[in-house]
Amino acid sequence: MREPASGTRPDPPLGAAKKGTSEASCALGRTLLMAAILLCTASRTEAQGVGREIPTMAYYAAFNELYDGEYDDALRHFQGEWRGAIKKPQTRWLDSICYHTMIGECFYQMGHLDKALEQYTAAIQLFLQYNDWMIRVQFPQTIRPLNPQACPWGVSQRGAKLCDFPTSMPIT
Q1: Could you read off the pLDDT of 135-160 as tens digits, one per residue?
Q2: Residue 14 predicted with pLDDT over 60
Q3: Contact 102, 35 (CB under 8 A)
Q4: Rg (Cα) of the chain, in Å, rounded?
Q5: CA of residue 21 relative to chain centroid, distance
Q6: Distance CA 94, CA 82 (A)
Q7: Is cis: bond before 12, omega within 30 of 0?
Q8: How far apart are alpha carbons 98 and 54 in whole angstroms?
C-alpha cells in the first residue's frame, strides 16, 4: 500500500463509510458492488456472438490493486476495461454494469462521492435495461453431476446435488 503524500489523509479501508455519507448511499453502493460481483463471477459469458469471454482476465486482475489500496491504478484499469466493453448503437451492453460499479467503488474509496454516485447510477440504469439477462443465457441442456466424496461435516438433508457447470455460456 502506498504511503499517503504529505498533507493528505490516508486511504480508508475498503468498504469503510466516509463521514457525512448517508447510510442509504452506503447501502446502495454495497448492493451494487455485490450485484456486479455476482453478475460477473456467477457466469462469465460469451457476448452476443462476439466470441470472447467477458469480463476479461484483466478485469479480475484489477481487483488485486483495489484490495491493496491502489485505487488510482485500479480505477485506470477498470476504466480501460470499460472502454473495451461491448457497445450497442444507443447504449452499452450488459457487461458495462460491472465496470461502472467497480469504477464507482474506486471513486468511493478515493472520496469522490459525486463521481461514485454517477457510476453507480449508470450501473443501475443498465441493470434495469437488461433485467431479463438471465433468461437470455443459453444454459446447457444437461448438466453433468459430480460424484463428490462425503462431506466431512455430515450428510446434507436438502437433497441438493453438486454438478459440473461450464465456466462460460453464450447470451443471445
Answers
A1: 888 888 888 888 766 667 777 788 77
A2: no
A3: no
A4: 19
A5: 22
A6: 11
A7: no
A8: 10
- Tell me the three state secondary structure of residue 9: coil
pLDDT greater than 90 at residue 169: no
The size of the chain, in residues, is 172
Q: What are residue 164's DSSP bridge partners?
A: 144
In the DSSP assignment, the letter for residue 68 is: T
- Looking at this protein, which amino acid is placed at residue 16? A
**Where is 166: in which H helix or E strand?**
none
Gap between the terminal Cα atoms of the chain = 42
Q: What is the largest CA-CA distance in the chain?
A: 60
Write the CB contacts of 47 (distance below 8 Å, at least 6 apart in sequence).
54, 86, 93, 94, 95, 171
Backbone angles phi, psi at 87, to 5 degrees: -120, 145
Tell which residue, 83, 86, 121, 97, has the closest CA to residue 42: 97
> Strands 53-54, 144-145: parallel, antiparallel or unpaired by DSSP?
unpaired
